[in-house]
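Memo to structure team: turn this sequence into C-alpha cells by end of day. - J.P.
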Amino acid sequence: MEHKKKLYLKGLIISNLFASTAVAIVFMWFWFKDKLNFNFELLWTLELIVMARISMFIGFSFILYRKWFKQESVFLTDAYFLFGIFFNMLCLGKILDLFSYLANVSGKFTLQETLIFLKIRYLIIVVNLNPLLFIGLGVVLNIINTYIKEFTTVKINRTRMRMIYLYNMISILVILLAPTVHVLTQSYAILISISMVGIILMFFIMYKFKGLSQAHGLIIGIGFLSFIIVGFITSPLRSAFANDPTLIELGTLAEIIDMMVYSIIFAGFLLKPKYAKNKPIILEENRNYSKHVASI
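Reply from structure team:
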C-alpha cells in the first residue's frame, strides 16, 4: 500500500507540474504579444484577492490530500481524494480567471480570442464537477437501492458512469458548438444552474439518509445554494467589470464574495456529521468499485 501511495503522490505532482507549465506558457505567449496588463498599481487589490483565492484552494486541496494519504488504504474513488481533486481544479480555474482579468483590462483581446478562452474555462468547470457527481450519484443510487433492491454494485456503478458520461457529452457539445460569446454564456448559465441544483439536492439527500460520512452534506449543500444565490450579485458585478475595465473594485468585490462562499463549502468537506461516528471512514461501495475496476 505504501508503494501505491507513492505512485499516487508522484501522479499528483506530475499532473500539477504539467498543468502549471501549460498555464505559464499561455501567460508568456500573450504577455509577449502585449495582450495582458500587469499594472500592479492599477490592479493590486484584484490581483491580491485572486492570489489569495488561489492560495486558499491550494491549501484546501493539500489538507484533503493529506487526509487521504493518512488512511490505511487509499483508492481513487475515496471521497477525500475526489474532494481534493475538486479544489485542485478550482485552483487551475482561478489562475485562468486572473488571466482573463489581465486580458480584460488590456482591452486587446479579439472576440474570437475571448470566445476560445471562455470555452476552455467552461470546459474546465464541467470537468471540475465530475468528482462531486461521482460521489453524489454513487451515494444516491445506493440509497435508492435500499428501497428498490434491484441494483447490484456493478449496475450502480455502470448507471453512475453513464449519467456522468451523458452530462459531459451534452455539456461539451453545447460549449464547443456555441458560435458567439453571447450564446456561449447563456448556454453555460443554463448548464451550470442545472448542475448546481442537482449537486445541492444530492448533498442534501446524502445528509438526510446518512449516506456520506467523510463530509457534512448539509453544510456543502448550503454552500452551493449560497453560491447560486450570491450569483445574482456577483454576475452583474463581473459583467459590469467586463464591460468597463475601469470598474476594478466591482470585480474585486465579486471575488471576495465568492471566497467567503467557498470557505463555507470547504468547511462542509472538512467537517463530519454526527452520524459519522458510527460509520466507516471509507464508503464500502467505493471500495467495491475500486476492486471491481482493478479486476477488469
